[in-house]
Amino acid sequence: MKETPLTATHIELNAKMAEFAGYNMPISYSGIIDEHLAVRNKAGLFDVSHMGEFIVKGKKAQELVDKVTSNDVSALKPGEIQYSCLPNTTGGIVDDLLVYRLYEDQCTEGEKAFMLVVNAGNIQKDWDWISSYANDDVKLTNISDQTALLALQGPAATSILSALTTVPVGTIDYYNFAKGTVAGISNVLISATGYTGSGGYELYCDNKDALELWNAIMTQGKSEGLIPAGLGARDTLRLEMGFCLYGNDINDETTPLEAGLGWITKLKKGHFIASDILAAQKSAGVTKKLTAFKMNEKRVPRHGYAILDSEGNTLGEVTSGTMSPSLGYPIGMGYIKTSDAVPGRQIFIDINGKKYAAETVKVPFVKIG
Question: For residue 279, how far is the Cα from the chain centroid?
């Protein structure tokens, strides 16, 4: 298994470790519920250095990124970020990702630069896919193995980070970024993004600086209730917000329109991979839709469980499910027929051959702020 620059630190903290996307990653430290609630109410610090980062630079950089992603890259100014996806040739999703429009201080005249942040399990797949569409006017660099990424999430994140930097982090708009010195470490990219719904920042730095940055944040945040958080809480937090997880809720067989990601599928921007297919699907209407639901009984739905109607007919299947720490009852998402994907629809989840009642709802499950 691969390791992040902080793997030894997680082990020293007695984290429960497990393989994830080929990496030895911390699943939890003090417990998923404890970590989840800390992020919702105070702050949590995640090591997500397993994520992948690609730099796309050159005179045709924007043209390439626009072709391979579904969102409208031309709308990005330096310092801004987009959530997007990489469609495949049949309209499915190669991966979901963040697109950063980098500042052009290291570009020559006419060049633009972007950073693409991709899922850990798809690094090689995404690299091969994007590279297949590149030409000599674009330089691609995979910086994944030399880049560490920490996610400081929760309502106390701004206070904690502000004490460690002169960068006015409280003024960084959502889905924007800045660069500066944090805890004496120069050239840290401070991104007002995250996967929890509770606000905060993602901090990119060189591998060699990861431990120093982690320790500085943990020390500064101790008085404000900051604790380390693992991938278990990361999953329950994102599901409460209705955020998709690649491999569960979206994959090569699901289209962004079926997944409720029409808002990142800008069909009017011009041609991109599978844009004709996605335009036709939008015109005809999707036949299945990713739908949220809450359980009426305290049985947790799991990936792959069948979703049924009252007569036992199959409507679809669960893609993600958990016991919500914030709500105290089980929640989930899954694909069902579009005609059934309306809030308030009674459905049933097949758990070990027995039907358990549930109800379709809107996301997010939890309202923050």
Answer: 25
